[in-house]
Design a protein that fits this description.
Its EC number is 2.7.8.26. Joins adenosylcobinamide-GDP and alpha-ribazole to generate adenosylcobalamin (Ado-cobalamin). Also synthesizes adenosylcobalamin 5'-phosphate from adenosylcobinamide-GDP and alpha-ribazole 5'-phosphate. The chain has one domain. It is about 75% helix and about 0% strand. It has eleven helices and no strands. It is an all-alpha fold and about 260 residues long. The chain starts with a helix and ends in a 10-residue tail after the last helix.
Length: about 260
């Protein structure tokens, strides 16, 4: 239970555990990252269900983007912007890592965030009632699973930081458990399509993780956040052609 609480309070603004810090429980909390993604998805869908009776679709889509920022505290967005600023700076490796530590946002990071939020806004605007559960849940679960994979399978670039605890305690067992829960959730919600989205996310994380490791000598807490944001967007974008061309891959669930 302590591991789940650490995962929840690190990936969201929700705090349930106020006891002493437990290094091992924190490091192995990655097992519950997909479960936290599921919780975020359910909360987001509930927000959509309530607000859809009050506000028009364009305003509702903007509110869903804002709701995700509020629920997560913008943690992954911050990592995404820092990663873009560092990687696209064209500087040597150590300078890139230094730029990523800088609390200020550069032009590359700001532009990337605007593009990311615009895409998310239009995704929420385009989701039909039928597809809402089958898109939002896989996107948020797989994006959090992607962080677990990145932690377990790529080296860490810095000698210190909270990310070192994840790297120290997250291995094959944690990745296996996180993958199993991810498959169960996405399979139950989106049927065969949900199962197909996992290898799509895996291929993306392998590609981006390899590129970032080549650029930075490993991954960091910022790149973990960037991985979550990019994978979430990728899954959303993959759902539309899958549903458009092979709707039979999705369960006909209505909530």
């Amino acid at each position: 239970m302590k591991q789940f609480c650490f995962a929840l309070q690190h990936l969201t603004r929700i705090t349930l555990y106020k006891g002493a810090f437990d290094e091992t429980a924190f490091g192995r909390a990655t097992v519950y990252f997909p479960a936290v993604g599921l919780l975020l998805a359910v909360l987001l869908i509930l927000v959509r269900a309530v607000l859809s009776y009050i506000f028009p679709a364009p305003l509702l889509a903007a509110m869903l983007v804002a709701a995700m920022v509020v629920m997560t505290g913008g943690l992954h967005l911050d990592g995404f912007m820092d990663t873009v600023d560092g990687v696209f700076s064209g500087r040597p490796r150590e300078k890139k890592l230094e730029i990523m530590r800088d609390s200020r946002v550069g032009a590359f990071g700001a532009l990337a965030m605007v593009c990311l939020l615009l895409l998310k806004y239009n995704i929420f605007l385009s989701l039909s009632d039928t597809l809402t559960w089958q898109a939002i849940i896989p996107a948020l679960v797989l994006s959090r699973w992607a962080m677990v994979y990145a932690i377990a399978r790529f080296p860490y670039a810095r000698p210190s930081g909270l990310g070192t605890l994840y790297k120290k305690y997250t291995g094959g067992r944690e990745l296996l458990l996180a993958t199993a829960s991810t498959l169960i959730i996405t399979g139950l919600v989106s049927g065969i399509a949900g199962l197909l989205l996992l290898p799509i996310a895996w291929a993306w994380v392998r590609f981006t993780g390899g590129k970032l490791t080549a650029e930075l000598g490993g991954l960091t807490g910022d790149t973990y956040g960037a991985t979550a944001e990019m994978t979430e967007l990728l899954v959303y974008l993959a759902v539309f052609p899958l549903y458009g061309y092979w709707p039979g891959l999705f369960y006909s669930l209505r909530f």
